[in-house]
Amino acid sequence: MSLDNLVTDEQTAPVLCLPHQCEFLSDAWLEEARRFFDTHLSRNSSLPAFSITERFTNAPPHLGFDDNIAQWSVCYDGSAIHLGRAPAPSDVKEAEGKEAEVKNAEVKVEGDYQAGLFMAQIVGALAPQVMGRGLRELQHLFGQGALRSSGPTLPPAVARLIGLFHDHMARITVENPDIAHRARALGVERHVREVEEHGYTVIENAISPDFADEVREVARRAVMAHDGYQLQWMLYHGLEMERLVQNAPLMTLMDASLGRGAVIASISAIVRGPGAGSIPMHTDYSMIPEPYPEFAMTGVGVWALEDWSEASGPTWIVPGSHRERRAPRKGEGMDRGVPIEMPKGSVVYFTHGVWHWQGDRSEAGERVTIHSHFNRGILRGLEPKRVDVQMLHRNPPRLGEMLGEDDWFDKLDARGRDYLRAGHMARLQAFTDRQLQTLLQG
Ligand SMILES: [Fe+2]
């Protein structure tokens, strides 16, 4: 069977996730929310009354909301649950003795859809520091006013239920599949175009300086515990690494150049001190025959965990060298290279077999980097995959996608191929291709 047969007709509403996943605030999301509250409230009849209304503007158009405003509410009056698209009523007159509690426990959340989705994908609502750090990164990425909430602190039993609900939904809520809409919402539309034109781009301040410090500490500690220079499999060194690897702006560039279902090739850390660079001019295409294909096979994001200047020994790149569609010959291209200078918390992304090397470091101290290397989903990774069900459980589907959980490779059994995943990835990629063209055409 050709995968083309599995692509949804453009006239029908696209289904862009697997059956056990959903898009934020879609009808499927709302149905799962209803199932959650029905199940949990039937077990706990003594819960105080509460109501929550969330309203997000600038939702992706394919979800079909009027004026692209996505809204939902849940209201518990002490005896029954009310869940739907309309705002929760503020004058509920329900179970006796509960009316005042509903009014007092009325919470409202408003903001931008992509910002809401950013928080909606974070698992760990009841774990120490997780939501606080998530909120810090949200405000860094989208600004202070991107999400606004009002209302009282929820009673502890209600807060616990909402925390469990949040995590349950976060585990199944996929990234916004409309890459053009997402790139605009995340402010990386220009960067997607730059990658096509120059073979690389820099997203400045993609994470907060505090997060950069946290990642640097994790990376340095892990590398020093081994050979003191370089370490692979950095994904498996804790929550900081799991969050970094799923960084939404960087992953949007990965999606644009490598397609959906791109897999981790390797997540590595390098610690280096002063001296000459130790990685000479090269491309990241190994064993790929020349001429290289016109589409990108692999992409690397290098995270700056300190400020990068020419003196700090940054990556050097030869802009436009991806158009050569071959590896550099001995001594070629150094005169056309540019040093990547960027502030702490930025990431340089390069792809398409662009030429690059590690520069000399004239400053004192150490440069610590994380190299987030992905391959197109039809390729193998460099690191063997180690899919840990607990890691998947504390993350949104984005992490599973990059570990190969959503595609059809390695899923064949005696009964045949996994056509569910094959069809899903074919539809998702067809939608991505269409939306990417609208972005690239301006
Ligand atoms: Fe490289």
Mean pLDDT: 92
Strand tally, please?
Answer: 16
Would you identify the CATH architecture of the largest domain? Answer: Sandwich
Which small compounds were modeled alongside the protein?
A: fe (ii) ion
Cα radius of gyration in angstroms: 23 Å
Strand neighbour order, sheet with most strands:
8-14-11-16-10-9
Q: What's the CATH superfamily of the largest domain, by name?
A: q2cbj1_9rhob like domain
Provide the CATH top-level class of the largest domain: Mainly Beta
Describe the structure.
The protein is of the alpha+beta class and 442 residues long. It folds into 2 domains: 22-171, Nonspecific Lipid-transfer Protein, Chain A; 179-440, q2cbj1_9rhob like domain (Jelly Rolls, Sandwich), CATH 2.60.120. The protein is 33% helix and 18% strand. It is built from 13 helices and 16 strands. It has helices at 27-43, 99-104, 113-120, 130-142, 156-170, 179-186, 189-198, 209-224, 239-245, 248-258, 389-393, 397-402, 419-440, and strands spanning 22-23, 50-57, 70-76, 81-84, 106-112, 147-150, 173-174, 200-203, 230-231, 263-272, 298-304, 315-317, 338-339, 347-351, 356-358, 367-375. Strands 8-14-11-16-10-9 form a 6-stranded antiparallel β-sheet. Strands 4-3-2-5-6 form a 5-stranded mixed β-sheet. Helix 6 (179-186) packs antiparallel against helix 10 (248-258) and helix 7 packs across helix 10 (248-258). The radius of gyration is 23 Å and the shape is globular. It starts with 21 loop residues before the first strand and ends with a helix. 41% of the residues are buried. Residues 282, 284, 356 line the site of fe (ii) ion.
